[in-house]
Structures are given as C-alpha cells and as structure tokens.
Amino acid sequence: MGSTTDCEVLVVGAGPVGLLTMLFLAKAGINVILVESLPDVDKSPRAMAYGAPAIVELERAGVAAEARSVGMVPSDYDFRLRWITIDNKTLGEFRSEDRIPGSFDAVLCGQYELAKIMKQHVSQYQNASILFNHKLSNIKEVEGALIATVETPEGNKEISAKYLAGCDGGRSTVRKLLNLTYDGFTLPQWLVACNVRYPFRAHGFDRSQFIVHPDHFCLVGKIDPTDLWRVSYAEKPDLTREEVLANVHSKFEAIFPGPKPLPKDAYTVEIVSPYRIHQRSAPSYRKGRAFLAGDAAHACSPFGGMGLTTGICDAGGLADCLIGVLRKGCDDSLLDRYADIRRQKYQDITNNVSYSNTCLLRDTDPEKASEHEFFRMMNSSTEVRREMLKSAYILG
Description:
One of its GO terms (molecular function) is FAD binding. By secondary structure, the protein is an alpha/beta fold.
C-alpha cells in the first residue's frame, strides 16, 4: 500500500457538483482533495441550462459571469421558455416580462464547459488539489476520520479525511460502498441526448422549448454561441441501444422545424448518448462521515430542468454545513440537517416537478392543452407566471 495523504474533506467526482463543493470549501480555507476515476472532466452531453436557485449558487461561487461569457450571446439574455406542439405552435410560455425584478440573468453553458471553469477556479487555491485517474475502491471509518482507498496508475493509495462528499453520479461508487439503496423507478422510454448543429432559430425556434407529443416529446435548447444545440428526446422502450442509434435521423425529421423531408446534410451530430430515465433517491444522504450530493444522492427526468439544478443546490448546502462544522464551531449535527433538508427538497420538489413535466409532455393531447391546469395557469397572466417562477427558489 502506498503513502497516506491527509485532508479535511475528500470529494469524489469531478462533475459540477463535486467541483462546486470543492470550490466553496477551498474559498473557506479548508484543505480539500478531489478524486476522479476519469483522466479529465467528462465530456458526455448533460445539462446546459440552470434553474434560478442554482444560478444563485453559481453567482456565490464567482463562476456565473464566466459561464455566461462561454455559453451566451446577447440574444440569449431574452428570457423565454416555451411549451410547443411538434409543428411549433406555442401552448404556453414564460416571457421576458415575467422575469422577477432583481433576479440574476440566466446561465446557459454546457455542463462540460461549466466543469472546466470550476476546475480552473479551484486551481487557484493551494489548499485544494484534484487527482484524476484515481478510482475509489473502498471506504472505512476510523475514530475521528475515514480512510478511502483509491486505485491509481502507480498503485493503490490511501487518503484519510475528516469527511467525504460523494458527488460521483448516478452509478455512485460512494453510495454502493456505503450500502445505500437507490429507491424509486425507471421510466420505460429511452432518453436520447444529442449535441447537434442545425439552424433552429432560422426556422422559428427560441433558445429553449419543450415539445408536447406522445411519441416525440423532447427538449430542444441552445448550448453555446456556435449554434450547438441539445436535442433530448424520448425513444420507444422496446428498442435495443443499436436500434435507438439507427433511428436518430427519423426522430430528427419528426422533431426538427424546417423543410421536409429533412436532408441528412442539413445538420451535424457531434454526440449521441442514449440512457434510461430514473426517478430515484438514496434513503439517506449521510452515513457516518460520508455524504451524498447530486446524482449520487438522487436522479430525476431531465425534462423538468431539475437534475443538475438540484445537485448544485446540494453542493452549496453541503459546503456551507461543512464550513460551519470545520471553521465556525458548529456542532456535527448540522450535517444531519444537510442530509434531511436536501432529501426533503428532492422528495417534495425535484421528484414531483421533474416527473410531472415529463408526464405533461408525454401524456397531454396537444389539441386539448388549453384545458390542462398547468397551461391554464401559465396563460392567465404575468402575475401568475411570475409566482410560478418565484416558487422555483424554494429548491435552494
């Protein structure tokens, strides 16, 4: 066994949740190490827009402005989010005039780019270090600390820490090593996340829209100023992964605005990633000196815009509680409050909103959408829409 490295907090996972937790801790002067099994931050297509309570945390961390500079152009600051039919008829929308006075600007930035920004900010702190190609394989708790075993290219290493933050995604090694279940269910449909270049704006799309349709419900949203877009759509549950990949063009032809039939040279696909949609949560976000945050703690459908937004709020809450205990003399029981409150937020808000919007997109007859309570509220007045937007902040 190799040498032992000591730190106050060990973070597992170099996604935005782990990196943001680390950044807050580093700013507070806490000695923190992050381990990640990959050779660098993950490039797979994930989130690219962040809800209001997550933007508060990104502002607090000092990364929001840089994320905007990477992901946005002036027209992206026009606040608009639509629910539309497959032929681009608006069923309901949040508009620029609905924006809450004094609220922060939106943040559009691909998850990979956001993680790169956080990684660069963390590098400025001597009390913080990121270790890539370090795969967690074991956790054991000893008196007053825990010891993590990690596999590295140079052999196994032990890292001791007072606390551990598991931010290592839906397949979390931390959660498995803690023997915590991942309770809930998996939706039958595939979710296919694509990064694609296509002139959506030229064909009448805005920066973000949900398509309401029983077979082609999806999200189409702009990722960055280079005309890269995220198209996340549902696919039939009985298809194999190979069949899902073979059917991408026919799905694009159904979903994309513009001339039909859709020429294959009209767009450029950068990446396609099929996966399953989960609504799941661990029974507890704390076990001893270890904690769960982000997808390691909970998973939800991306069609509600709640996944990484909830994870970023987890990061802010966990970091604040760790800072309270390690630097401000707070009792260790404060960390129980983190675990209890964040799990309650998932159960009461994230789980309900994300699943409800998925069902709204999948199960609503577009011809009768005006009769649905959600669209009746949204289409009633600016005041009602503003109250709907204000309710998002309770996730933080």
